[in-house]
Amino acid sequence: MRCNPSSLRTFRRALSAAFITGVSALPFAQVYAQDAAPAELETVVVTAQKRTQAVKDVPLAITAFSASDIDRENFTDFERLSTRTPGFFVQQSTDSSASFVMRGIEAGNAGAIAEPSISFFLNDVDTSRSRGLLKELFDVERVEVAKGPQGTLYGRGSEIGAVAVYTKKANTRLYDWNMEGQLGNYDLYSVGGMVNMPLIEDKLAVRVAARRREREGFQDILSASKPAGSDDLWAARVSLRYEASEALAFDLIVDHQADNDNATITKALSVASPGTDTNPFTTFDRNELPVPQQRRQTGVTLLGDWKLSDAWTLNSITGYREVTFQEAWDGDGTSYPFILPVNNPDNQWLTSQEFRFRYDNKGRFKSVFGVSFYKDRTKNELSFIINEQYLLAGFPRVLTPVTSFYGMPVTTGNQTDLYSALSRDSVSAYGNITFAATDRLVLDAGLRYTRDDATVRQRSTVSTIDGVRAIALPNGLSNSLGQTFSHSQTYGLTQPRLAVTYKINDAMNLYAGASKGIKAGYPQISFAAPVGGVAQPSYSEVKSEEVVNLEAGFKGNVAPRTYVEAIAFSYDYKDFQTRSQDLTKGTINAGKASAYGLELLGRTKITPELSLNGSYTYLHTQYDEFYEVVGGALVDYSGHKFRLAPEHTYSVSADYRRPIGQNWRGYGNVNYSWKSDYFFNNDNLTIERQEAFGLTDLRLGVERQDGTLRFEAYAENLFDTQWYRDVGNTGKSFGISTVIPAAPRFFGVRLTVSK
């Protein structure tokens, strides 16, 4: 691992801020050291280090949400959950499409080839590619968001963090059920429920959970009868648990999710369709889409837990996931037939197996080590149609198409059909050791080695929809001339971590750590102009990108009813993979970058009725060296900020619950989250920037004291704040950036009934 001197200096400054925050709490620590685990505050346990620990005892930045957290605020998606998570930023356009950003680094794109920067695990099974990334949160035990390089503990794709979702398993000793219903604006209805049944007491049980949700779109389309932005979801999960003995148990989990949202809204930033305007939040128009957006996810997971002895445990994690996806979108965000709606099917098949050994004899030494196998088969197809009559006329500056060019007829549709596929076989071995050197000082060290064998296959064909020969792009957007080419590479990835924890007392810890994250590279094929009708492929690779992270922090209870965290971090980022603005280049490695920041989190119970929560993140990002040739000209982005990386974010929330009579209580829950301005693209254009904004969520309701019946009214984005999810997109490469507007105010009522 290496780190440049400037990053070390900024890290020391950030570390000083975190240390001062921690030390300022020490007087409270001395007072409350003997009573530092107040019953009033829920203790959330996590398994980031592959064993059960309280959050404060884990020497890394991790934010966890329990089942009660998720239920209380009705977190069904990651966008709202991320507003309560320091250093985590999610923009969720539909149930099938999102941008995950951790400490300024964005997860990999939606293509078949690129590897992710942020891992996503469902019940310890990796499902990180963006099309399978989003999961509906229902009947969930907890969500863990681990920030910083986590490849040692989590494995592939955890270059800058990992998100882990654990669903509730079947219980062999409890009959349980619940039901839920919602009604809201834009014709929302949602129904769901769960039933848990022991089939053989203390031996075999089944748990079934499901949710159905539908909401109409919120933005009118001039030429369509139904508005855009709809939500249509089916999700179900069946879990079986078999306890063969006190030492051996298995969980079989089968899940399926079907999303049928209509396409992501895109509206041109600078060109209005006839009959509309350029306001991103008003009626827009587009060309007819050839296919609807659809996604199907199916997963099968088998978990085995075998207690070999008092000290040794063996876990087996077997996973299979299949994702089929298709969508179409309007690339130029107008009804002008310039970039015609494209068709983009995307499919993935994944199998994985992990064997994990844990050692814990309740002494000073603990360890976990294991091996994992991962097979990923992904393919992506993209049909891209460009109307050369508009292209040669100079659209978007000129809105009138040309029909001839130097006496030659001009095609109305030059179609490129791109095909790319990836086969990746991965083998990994890892270990992590924890050693309590003294009663107060704990050392952690870990290492993972991964071997990736990756093969890429690519081809493209070109045709015209009217039979007229293309002039501007005779070979379409690629030059493979219909031939399939393949290229293979092998990658060896070594990811270490070191951490030290100092226990101030039983309630509070200081920690410091260093870790290295790697996002695997991949083979790449590019094509020069054909010579004599023969394709000219060029074989290269996108290098693996690396992050070296230093962080230190304070975690713990500073009073019986108050928990705080203060974490400082700094990282160096080299060979980062980014999408070139030149469409013919695909993904490129673009130099060096660095960042540093501070994350604060706190929660307190002012009274038995009133709880307060808050978080704040400061994030400074910068491209240190970033040069790119675009259109034959050298462009320097050095000194620019990362995309989707606001410098300041914070959230504050309050939850108040008070008895009403003998059996009931009323409650109110309010959350306000705020982000400073940020850019949407590497060029940091002012017109492609999101101004600072805040969002407010409110919930008011009544419930029985035993929690068996609840009725509430809610509003999300209470004040109907208008903001952008993204700006630029496909049209930016053709001089016509498009905007994806965020959702307006949603409100409704919710009823839950449980045993």
Describe the structure.
With 755 residues, this protein is mostly beta strands. It has one domain (5-754): Maltoporin, Chain A. The chain is built from 6 helices and 47 strands. It has a 22-stranded antiparallel β-barrel. Strands 3-9-10-7-8 form a 5-stranded mixed β-sheet. Strand 4 and strand 5 form a beta hairpin.
Task: Please tag this protein with its features.
disordered N terminus, five-stranded mixed sheet, 22-stranded antiparallel β-barrel, mainly beta, 47 strands, single chain, 755 residues, 6 helices, Maltoporin, Chain A, globular
Summarize the structure.
This protein has 755 residues and is mainly beta. The chain is 6% helix and 56% strand. It is globular, with a radius of gyration of 26 Å.
The CATH topology is: Maltoporin, Chain A
Q: What would CATH call the class?
A: Mainly Beta
Percent in strands:
over 45%
Mean pLDDT: 88
Q: Going by CATH, what is the homologous superfamily?
A: TonB-dependent receptor, beta-barrel domain
Stretches with pLDDT under 50, minimum 5 residues: 1-39
User: Which structural class matches the secondary elements?
Assistant: mainly beta
